[in-house]
Amino acid sequence: MADDVKDTKDSPEFPAETVSEAELVSRAKQGDQAAFESLLRKYEVMIYNLAYRMLHNRADADDILQEAALKAYQALPSFKSRSGFGTWFYRIAANLCLMKLRRGKRAPFSLEAMINRQKDQEEKEFEIEDASHNPATHFARVELRKVLEDGIAGLPSTYRVPFILYEIDNLSVREISRILKISEPAVKTRLHRSRLLLREKLADHIGHLKK
């Protein structure tokens, strides 16, 4: 998974410390291609990682990144700046992922995505004690991992997507609300429902999820 997570890059044309995002958006709206490319570089890692975590396929993640960039460029004149460019761009990509999930087969969920965080984020490890010396314990942990992966993959997309955005991408309820264009209470309801469904599937295999 570490090899699949992209690193951030600084924009050579518009250093972050000299040009604000609002200025980049303004220039891009006026047809400044370099400004738009700087905006893309700023958020391409976030978009790629979102797509990879939701689709678990590098080629699909690259396709989503390219398609989201094209849609953002085409829709830029109508961007009202009520939310940040990053949130708006993220919403475009999330919706593309949702459309792909609905069109195709359900993407397999890997617990590694829940364990490994982006390199540029504060690391929050999901600790699993080394049980290699105890075959019975090791088998139980492997079985738990498989049950959890199957449980998350089996969630309806209505509940699975906000769960992934919250539990894996560490987005806030407000951010998820803006991305999915649903109310914050609706996000909380879906997160609550996703946990209930998982607990039903996992039964005694897991104690609790993030509150």
Question: What is the helix tally?
Answer: 9
Would you tell me the structural class of the helices and strands? mainly alpha
**Could you give me the name of the CATH homologous superfamily of the largest domain?**
RNA polymerase sigma factor, region 2, helix turn helix motif
Global Rg: 19 Å
Could you give a short account of the major beta sheet? Answer: none
The CATH topology annotation of the largest domain reads as Rna Polymerase Sigma Factor, Chain: A
The proportion of residues forming helix, as a percent range, comes to 55-70%
If you average the pLDDT, what whole number results?
76
The level-1 CATH class of the largest domain: Mainly Alpha
Number of strands: 0
- The quaternary state of the protein chains shown equals single chain
Approximate strand percentage: under 5%
The CATH architecture of the largest domain comes to: Orthogonal Bundle
Give the SSE string.
HHHHHHHHH
**Spans with pLDDT under 50 lasting ≥5 residues?**
8-13, 113-131
Overall 3D form: elongated
Distance between the termini: 26 Å
InterPro entries: RNA_pol_sigma-70-like (IPR039425), RNA_pol_sigma-70_dom (IPR014284), RNA_pol_sigma70_r2 (IPR007627), RNA_pol_sigma70_r4_t2 (IPR013249), RNA_pol_sigma_r2 (IPR013325), RNA_pol_sigma_r3/r4-like (IPR013324), WH-like_DNA-bd_sf (IPR036388)
Family: Belongs to the sigma-70 factor family. ECF subfamily.
GO molecular function, one term: sigma factor activity
Pfam family, one: Sigma70_r4_2
